[in-house]
Structure formats: C-alpha cells, structure tokens
Amino acid sequence: MLKSSLFRKAWIAWVALLIGLVVSVFASLQVKQGIEQERARRFVFVCDQVTHKIQDRLNAYALILRSAVALFAASKAVEREEWQAFVVNLQAGQSVPGTQGFGFSQVIPADRLAAHITRVRAEGFPDYTVYPPGKRTLYTPVVYLEPFRDRNLRAFGYDMYTEPVRRAAMQQACDTGEAALSGKVKLVQETETEVQAGTLM
Fold this sequence. Notes:
Low-confidence stretches: none
Number of helices: 5
Order of helices and strands: HHHEEHEEHEE
Strand order of the largest sheet: 1-4
Number of strands: 6
Radius of gyration: 32 Å
CATH class of the largest domain: Alpha Beta
Structural class: mainly alpha
CATH superfamily of the largest domain: CHASE domain
Helix content: 55-70%
CATH architecture of the largest domain: 2-Layer Sandwich
Number of domains: 2
Largest sheet: 2 strands, antiparallel
C-alpha cells in the first residue's frame, strides 16, 4: 500500500511537472509570437511612415515643377532673370531640402541648334555650347539652372536626352504629362573626387 501511495504521489508530481512544462513552453511561444507580431507591426508602421514622407517630398518636388510649367505657360518667353527670380522666390531650399538645383532644359530641333547657340552666346556666355557633341534630330540642353554658380555651371548646355536614364524620365514625362523621377544618375555637376549619385525629376 505504501508503495502504491508513493508511486501515486510520484506519478502526480510527474504529471504536474509535465503540465507545468507544457504550459511554460506554450506561454513562452505565445509571448515570443506576440513580440514578433509587435515587431512586425512596428516595422510596417515605420515603413509606412517613411513611404509617406518620401511621397510627400516627391509631391512637393512635382508641385514645384507644375509651378514652373505655369510660369512658362503664363509668359511669352521666360528670360534667364525671370527664371532666377522664380527659383529664388520658391524658397525651395527651406521647404524641400535636398535639391542641388532647379533647371530648365529646352527642346531644340537640329536645324535650329546653331541659332540657339548664337543666341545664348549673345546673352553673355561666349563659350556656351551644347554637349556632348554629335548629330541628333533634337537637342535638350540645360539653358537655365539655379543657383547658377559653382558646380551647377558644369550642367549649362548639357543635353540630358543623350543619357539613357535621363531620356527615359524625360520621355515618360512627355508621354504622361506628369512629373517623372529618373533612375540613379551621376549628376553632371559632380567632380571625379566628390561623386554623388542623384535623381532628376
């Protein structure tokens, strides 16, 4: 009888221990799953926040481009000084940081390229040329760029349509009538020692 009583108590103790272990493992798994779900929720939340911030920034850039379109639509011919005043009054450096410059690229048919170069040189830029050189059916040189100093001067006259990534964004913008963001490009403004990748819109 004593043996059976001890066996019974041992059996109950083992069952209680086993139940305790099962409950502990189950509780640990639930806690771990809860922590993982919370991390996943936080990750999704942070990703959504970052996505919204990026989208807001891109929308701000697109709004600036729409303002530039409105400037050209409202004027018979936007002159260099008007473009400069437009960019200065945007105060975009404070409202949408991260921009290196605001430019205007003009579409020039091949038969009007020589006249275009002559006109820009007569504006006080005797060394102006459209580059890279070569015969094309049309040219899209950067004719206005603000701020018009320092590194940005390197982009003056650059035909953006000659570079495939830039051309794809320009073509998309022409086809859709909406702002288009280019893929990653090496900005013309960069030097060999201070290379930064960028995008154009």
